[in-house]
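Per reviewer request, we include the raw input and output of the structure prediction for the construct analysed in the revised manuscript.
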Amino acid sequence: MNNAPRKTPERIDLAAADDPRDVVHQAVACLAQGEILGLPTETVYVAAASGTRPTAIARLREARREGSLGAAMIALRGHGELADWIPDRSVACSRLARRAWPGPVVLRFPARPDQGLFTRLSPETIELLSETKTFGFVIPEHDLIGEILDLTPGPVVLMETAGETAAGLVDGDWLRMLIDDGVSTRKGRSTSVLIEGDGWTIEREGVVSEQEIARLASTLVLFVCTGNTCRSPMAEALCKALLAKRLGCSVEELPTRGFLIESAGLAASPGRPAAREAVEIVRERGASLASHSSRQVDRDLIRRADRIVTMTRDHHSTLVSRAPDTIDRVFLLDPEGYDVDDPIGADRHVYRQTAQLIEKHLEHLIDQILPA
């Protein structure tokens, strides 16, 4: 390796660039040439290098020894890529990857270079990535990194600096190019989560709280109907009550026990309360809809949900047609495939019958989602 002093890195002001696409192509070329690239993220700035370029890996290791950079991690293009690196993942890990990314969360695993794509990396790259005895992965929220990754073959290694501005990278003589996007949008560092088996622990506290990580790792059941004022809110409230009873806790404690129960409508008008009859009937059955506010099904809800439970076959087919990737996560509430009819406009007797039918099917559902 050439130990001669390197020139001051080329600095590019992203906000002043005539065409951001030119910046992306310059960054991709820098990585392809085995150079180190400074990039903004939503939290701190990072140094980036191609995981297949020995000179780049050597320079990152040098910077790491100088104390300039944090632990190495691999930047992924999408959460589905994690399976190529860590084939044996827990359900909670898959939930975290699907819900926390892109964002300021690093998922780390005990280092096992004999699995997945790690078997294709050089010993030097493996050594750098496993200095903490773990392998880390991240999908930064900054659009620039995503665009660079899309055009860069092979893995890209990132290492955090301590700064929310580009100033922390200016003096790095190992750096070839620095893309400056001003001050990071989120103050603080990413949260590092260690995944071991079926469990997880906070390895380093950051901008995402432990409480939020617990929520992201929980089982999310989403009930769906049309307007989100009758059937799906009743199912949500009754499911919370029944599940809390089974677990021996309060409804408020369900998230700490690993369960989130929500509802939405395919054609809901946002912000409407539950139907008066629905509120009264679920109250009779020990549940509450007092604070319910209707909302529409959106892509974020669909992405986060582990199990989407629809009231009718039409709801089921509509969801699958909108989001084909949900085919394995969408189920009818009635396990025999019958519809739960909409009681809107009917009297309290019909609402009570609907609630009884929903409760009957919920017992079957809870048997499925609770661990044996």
